[in-house]
Automatic annotation (TrEMBL), chains A, B:
Name of the protein this chain belongs to: 2-aminoadipate aminotransferase
PANTHER family in alphabetical order: AMINOTRANSFERASE (PTHR42790), KYNURENINE_ALPHA-AMINOADIPATE AMINOTRANSFERASE, MITOCHONDRIAL (PTHR42790:SF19)
Single GO molecular function: transaminase activity
Entry similarity comment: Belongs to the class-I pyridoxal-phosphate-dependent aminotransferase family.
Keywords in alphabetical order: Aminotransferase, Pyridoxal phosphate, Transferase
GO biological process terms, semicolon-separated: alpha-amino acid metabolic process
Cofactor(s) required, per the database record: pyridoxal 5'-phosphate
Domain of life: Bacteria
Self-association state and partner proteins as the record states: Homodimer.
Length: 408, 408
């Protein structure tokens, strides 16, 4: 019998997979990791902020005294003491969160995937801020929603730009209210109140993603949407920015009727999150030094943010604007309109500095003259050198476009 | 303004979530974990098989010498040395697997989820053995396929019971060829050859799930479907049964055209698998003692399996039959037709022993007079006591049904 080899490309993929596009950003981030490049691109915590010694001591302790717990199959909901510690930490002021409302996830990326899986059918309307977090768009897009962008300004998303019809028909609104990725902006208290009022009127579900809230530079963030409307919010949190991303431990808080479904989706996704890393997160969260650890990260990022802002003011030409974050890891630069930041990226790379072009952070309509910088990962010296290089690349582009414009 | 609280049950869920059913098995497994119960239910590795000391030493070493690697964000494909070590181990005889064909997943449960996500649209035909692995049905069912069951016998699935039409239209066939969960059966070499021949003719994609293949009691398993038809197979593997399930490290091997999509789905799911546990798996896999560690687990499970078979022969009444596995963790019991194993479960629990009713392991048509036992978790004493108790429960049921039948 003549057994022919099967031809390539012969499998019929799911519609959602046919629509998946190769991520140009992935390639771009790989380039940014070259050792000769100062990278303001990837949202990596500072390596100096990782509590290595304490994690090593905790791992040793866990594998001495709770090895079977850490290494055997565990409950899909997560490690109970960790869920209790998270609930305790989220219970502030008048808000009371119970451990039963917490589902531990494999990073908050998984929480986004689970929420999308449980709530989105092909064509479902989904509201997202613009610009918005790229990883959220990727997670949501897998379930083939119809995105609708919500405009933002310096005080975050604009609730009065949401139509009643959109709010009533959308499956969810995704927002990062604190030190948003990519802009570093914070949703103001007034806007939170206005948004929650409209949510109560329309029944919209809010997905509040808060990976950076603990990285506040001074004082407090405004109250969470969760605390303001617990019955209307799925709240996502993460230990990636405050302990270590490689642990892949995040969580979600959800109303009970959604939790039932989210838990089933979690179980089908990966049974449960790694027992060892859940216990590591729990050990650090409860060892009494957690708040001083957080303070050290906040001071580091505040200083690095202040330095980057100073350098931007010092080196950038006229016509370049940027945000002034009150916390988090990112700031957002708006260039003169004639500069496309994806072209600027190539120039900047030649000068040895990398960022992420702003077009990546939009579900529908990219804004080409924007870019995201992180000040968390680089050292102070690298920040100074890198911003000077970036300014040079922008100035060169401006000269070039000026020449082009001048030619009749 | 009168602000009414939102009513319960107001969110429109995705169709797939509306179809998710609460798992009765979850509740059942919780009961089985009571300390007064001898459990043959959950598929948990023996706690004595966990390489705790070696994992502790490896964790200490990793957090001393590669802490940033373990704790920072990592590549979605997985930790390169681990992918290389897996590829090396899968390359036997004439089969050559490259690291680029390996995607590390958060347990092989996630591999099932990713494969299903990339390949299944609502209504897509999906072929599964019957009985089959419950976790696979859960993962696949999320994407709303039309299941079609493939009959099996003592030598595994029956390729000549597959119609050409089914094989040409189905998105995939899911099978566990080695020491299948739940039956403990192995797909014979003859059947593998027949299946692969038909796959070459019809272009069907095989999903070969092999979490137990390393747990062979003596000699070797037949060649993998991957080695026989690398262009037509997605192969899933796991470290849950040979190192520790709590690490949540598994992998898949896929043809390049599928890998591109699986990688995008992986990235959207959880960015990457935990860096620390990937390094722990790599350390154990490559430290030179791995094969002797495997031998120790095989000997343990072989002895426990032999003991359970001996006890079954000693205690079970006539009319009860069971499989004789050549590896793995499970065996499959067929009861007299009048006994429904879900009712027997209640009786057995009162006598202090638990199993999983066989109905859980079918995508469509449950077979009520079957049950799954694992001999991996319990101690030898527990195996002896537990099987005697189970036999008592079965005998009592038989007496009861005999009486019922006798009444006119």
């Amino acid at each position: 019998m003549d057994r022919h080899l099967p031809p390539a490309g012969r499998w019929q993929l799911a519609m959602r997979a046919q629509r998946m596009k190769p991520s140009s950003l992935r390639e771009l981030l790989k380039v940014a990791e070259r050792p000769d490049i100062i990278s303001f691109a990837g949202g990596l915590p500072s390596p100096y902020a990782l509590p290595v010694e304490r994690l090593r001591a905790a791992a040793d302790d866990i594998l001495r005294h709770d090895a079977t717990g850490a290494l055997q199959y565990g409950p899909s909901e997560g490690y109970t003491p960790l869920r209790e510690a998270i609930a305790e930490r989220l219970s502030t002021g008048g808000t009371r969160i119970n451990a039963s409302q917490i589902l531990v996830t494999t990073g908050s990326q998984q929480a986004l995937d689970l929420v999308a899986r449980v709530l989105i059918d092909p064509g479902s309307r989904v509201l997202v801020e613009t610009p918005t977090y790229l990883g959220a768009v990727q997670a949501l897009a897998q379930y083939e929603p119809a995105f609708e962008e919500v405009p933002t300004d310096a005080a975050g998303l604009l609730p009065d730009r949401l139509s009643d019809a959109s709010m009533r028909s959308a499956r969810l609104l995704y927002t990062q209210p604190n030190f948003q990725n990519p802009t570093g902006r914070t949703l103001s208290l007034e806007r939170r109140i206005a948004l929650v009022a409209r949510v109560h009127d329309t029944g919209l579900l809010l997905v509040e993603d808060d990976p950076y809230g603990e990285l506040v530079y001074s004082g407090h963030t405004p109250p969470s949407l969760l605390s303001m409307a617990p019955e209307s919010v799925v709240h996502l949190g993460s230990f990636s920015k405050v302990i270590a991303p490689g642990l892949r431990v995040g969580y979600l808080v959800a109303p009970e009727e959604l939790m039932v479904k989210l838990l089933q989706a979690k179980q089908a996704s990966d049974l449960h999150t790694t027992g060892l890393t859940q216990r590591l997160a729990h050990a650090l969260l409860t060892d009494g030094d957690y708040d001083s650890h957080l303070t050290a990260i906040r001071l580091r990022y505040r200083a690095q943010c202040a330095l980057m802002l100073k350098c931007l003011a010092q080196y950038m030409p006229d016509g370049v604007a940027w945000t002034r974050p009150a916390g988090g890891m990112f700031l957002w630069v708006t260039l003169p309109e004639q500069i496309d930041s994806s072209h600027l990226f190539e120039d900047a790379l030649k000068l040895g500095v990398a960022f992420i072009p702003g077009a990546s952070f939009h579900a529908i309509s990219p804004q080409a003259n924007t870019l995201r910088l992180t000040f968390a990962t680089a050292t102070p010296t690298e920040i100074e050198t890198g911003i000077a290089r970036l300014a040079d690349a922008i100035k060169a582009r401006l000269r070039e476009t000026a020449v082009c414009v001048a030619v009749p």
